Amino acid sequence: MSAAIRNVAAMGRTSIAIGVAALAVGLAAWAGQAVTQSSSFLPGFEDETPLQLAEIAGAERPVVVELFTSQGCSSCPPADALLDELADQPGLLALSFHVDYWDYIGWKDPFASAAYTQRQRDYARTLGLRYVYTPQIVVDGRKDLVGSHRRAVESAIKEAAKRKPTVDVKLVSGGDGRDGGTITLSAGDAPAEGAAVYLVMFDDDHETDVARGENGGRSIHNANVVREYRKLGTWTGEAMEFAIDMDAARSEGHGGCAVIVQAGTTGPVLGAAVLDLDGAS
Fold it and tell me: Which residues, including other chains, have CB under 8 Å from residue 214's CB and lie 6 or more apart?
């Protein structure tokens, strides 16, 4: 075989390989698998000017900000840093949901759960997205943004803070020698499909030395890391009350407890409440 023919054959094999790789990426996106971008293609994360969110501190309910992230994703640390800032802002319920679809590339995220990945995929369906990706932030169940785009996230939070709650949610610790705690929901106008009532327990902070994967050799800080997430029931407009075991949450080292009420399963947030377990008696 001549050198020219060998070169053509090699080029053909290369083209086929590129085509197969592109097809694999397309199928992954279609199937709802991880689709990520290098942080160099995510303009906005480098903007480190202070957040301007003082006006939301007096909102009637916390704005819910959910970050879908992974310690195995090299684009996620800037979003993790932003979530850390948001966790300290009054008037916000900022949560880190660690997804598990990055675990296969060399580092198993110790906080990842298939349940959190499913929540993200449910959001993709609700919001009409073609795929899931990291880092992704969802604000109040209404809008998704790249998790490191500070100004876009800030703007979405301010817009969400203008909405009044549909249901008044109260989260009260036992205290005074009593065990557990209580969640109460007021009566109100519920959506036709009802609204899911979710209980979320989270840890304040975690520092992890990542040994392998895209972030190998880095120490990653995660704030408000979700450790328990479950549905308590469905609000249909009647007043409701739930008893919960906050003492067990404290004994497991969780720093916070939250309740999220949202239309359907992952629709717009209708009400929310959060309690600092470290400071609650």
Answer: 72, 73, 74, 102, 105, 106, 107
Q: pTM for the complete prediction?
A: 0.82
Angle between helices 150-161 and 77-87 (to 10 degrees): 30
pLDDT tens figures, 219-269:
999 999 999 999 999 999 999 999 988 777 777 778 899 999 999 999 999
Strands 256-263 and 195-209: antiparallel
CA geometry: angle 188, 189, 192, nearest 5 deg: 140
Q: Do strands 63-69 and 92-98 pair parallel, antiparallel, or not at all (unpaired)? A: parallel
C-alpha to C-alpha distance for 133 and 34, rounded to whole angstroms: 5
pLDDT tens profile 139-174: 999 999 999 999 999 999 999 999 999 999 999 887
pLDDT above 90: residue 86: yes
CB 67 within 8 A of CB 246: no
d(CA 230, CA 202): 12
State yes or no: pLDDT of 44 exceeds 80: no
